[in-house]
Amino acid sequence: MRPALVAEALRARIDSGELEAGAKLPSTRHLAAEFEVNERTIYDAVALLRTTGHVRSQQGKGVFVRDYRPLEWHAHKFERGDRRDDRATNTDDWKAGVIEQGMTPSQDTPQVSVEVADARVAEWLQLGPGEKVVARRRLRRADERPYQLADSFFPEDIGRAVPADWDDEVSPLMAERDVTLPGGILASVGHPQRRVRDEISPRTPSTDEAERLEIAAGAPVCEHVRIGYGADGRPVRVMITIAPGDRNRIVYEMEL
Amino acid sequence: MRPALVAEALRARIDSGELEAGAKLPSTRHLAAEFEVNERTIYDAVALLRTTGHVRSQQGKGVFVRDYRPLEWHAHKFERGDRRDDRATNTDDWKAGVIEQGMTPSQDTPQVSVEVADARVAEWLQLGPGEKVVARRRLRRADERPYQLADSFFPEDIGRAVPADWDDEVSPLMAERDVTLPGGILASVGHPQRRVRDEISPRTPSTDEAERLEIAAGAPVCEHVRIGYGADGRPVRVMITIAPGDRNRIVYEMEL
DNA sequence: CAGTGGTCTAGACCACGCT
DNA sequence: GCGTGGTCTAGACCACTGG
């Protein structure tokens, strides 16, 4: 019996509910005996199920059925100002969406730095080689579990800009905490976004991304890149979101 | 040396251009000798490169570096009527986009059938159990190579409808050839789309999808589901597009 | 320490393409 | 028939968890 067939059999047990979310699978030794195959074959089968997001392995403990609840991400609403009222209550678009779906959003402390733009970011922001950006890296969670990586990059002058009535020491885009301002931070520093371009590609995560999101090395993720352009057509921000497929669905709604 | 490290070394050779697009890698026997590992380890490394889309294997022939040219798919323009002029020349939105990017579009003969809707399609089209749909399944190619699977489903009454001035025997949505009508087929049968909802999720292909698209079993693909709603809010069509990540990028542009 | 998952090798064997 | 990739087993061994 081939690994793909063993994986298929185990998947059937998961989908049918015979193995509940969070339940522990029989040990690889037991499965090998049951399916009358080598342990190595079981290992390969489990690796397949890990990639599809059906199970999660913990060395020394066991293999467990995954229980992520899928979350919709309404990309067309994002930053459109539909939720301007929420901004006043210190809640951003991501958080509002998570709450609407009955879960509790949270976010690790943003990692802020000023650094030389890498090749891709430089091209998106139309920067020359060696030019710097303000980087703001975040891990978004729902019910305490990782759902998305969301890294934003701003040209240095915009990232360091401060609103007229700002009374903090550092600019809002470089603050290592969540900041919300009426109309959005970019608007309040004089660079409102007028147009966005989203580029979406499914791919495999880097080892770093896989670790932070707690997914298997080959698990499919969506790389969602949003480039925001200001009134004069200048790119003012690029946001790179990495969304694992087993817990995310991106939604766009449009009138024709 | 572990498979991941071997894969990394080979990927470096591909990315650096030492191994050109389309080039054949050394045989697994040779690679095993070179890296001083077992052939099985090489096989696992090649499997990783297949999943990421870097190489393609052909039994009995060899392992070859992939050379797909990525294509952008401008989902926000699709069916918006921006290209109504193209419709007159018998060119649909997909084809127009491919031509703009300097490649030659083609499409296998659409597979048309009337069938009972599966659970997901029934829910999207708000049909009861057992209700039928007109299914129209297509494989889209660029420069003769597979790029996307695009399957459309219509409620039976709409799929069988015929425009007033239609002189063919079968309805345009059931014709086993490409049909273009001014304003789009759905409008010409009295059910223009007024609003669409797109749901995008990265996932792993089914074995059938993997075969038809000529990709590895675990390769990341995007499932893009577009549900089109008519003037009265009734869903008139659902289109499921499967786009492999190594050759597709989905683009949305929006004014804020 | 025993029990769990994870990794690699050696080797037998199969499937395919070509000449 | 030879060379290619693909598959599975047996078994040694490692890494982690928890009593």
Tag the structure with descriptive keywords:
homodimer; 256 residues; alpha+beta; seven-stranded antiparallel sheet; two-stranded antiparallel ribbon; 9 helices; 11 strands; DNA-binding
Tell me briefly what this model is.
With 256 residues, the first copy, chain A, is an alpha+beta fold. Chain A has helices at 3-16, 28-35, 39-51, 84-88, 93-100, 119-124, 156-160, 185-188, 207-213, and strands spanning 55-58, 62-65, 71-74, 105-107, 111-116, 132-142, 145-155, 195-203, 221-229, 235-244, 248-255.
Annotate the secondary structure layout:
The structure is a homodimer of 256-residue chains.
Chain A: H1 3-16, H2 28-35, H3 39-51, E1 55-58, E2 62-65, E3 71-74, H4 84-88, H5 93-100, E4 105-107, E5 111-116, H6 119-124, E6 132-142, E7 145-155, H7 156-160, H8 185-188, E8 195-203, H9 207-213, E9 221-229, E10 235-244, E11 248-255
Parallel strand pairs in A: 3-11
Antiparallel strand pairs in A: 1-2, 4-6, 5-6, 6-7, 7-10, 8-9, 9-10
Chain A binds a DNA duplex (19 and 19 nucleotides) through residues 1-3, 27-29, 37-41, 43-44, 46-47, 57-63.
Strand content of chain A: 25-35%
Number of helices of chain A: 9
State the order of secondary-structure elements of chain A, H for helix, E for strand.
HHHEEEHHEEHEEHHEHEEE
Name the poorly predicted regions of chain A: 82-90
Amino- and carboxy-terminal Cα gap of chain A? 51 Å
Q: Which structural category fits the helices and strands of chain A? A: alpha+beta
As a whole number of angstroms, the C-alpha radius of gyration of chain A is 22 Å
Q: Classify the oligomer.
A: homodimer
Q: How would a textbook summarize the main sheet of chain A?
A: 7 strands, antiparallel
Q: Give the helix proportion of chain A (percent range).
A: 25-40%
Most extensive chain-chain interface: A-B, 39 and 39 residues
Mean pLDDT over the full residue set of chain A: 88
The counted number of beta strands of chain A is 11
Shape of chain A: elongated
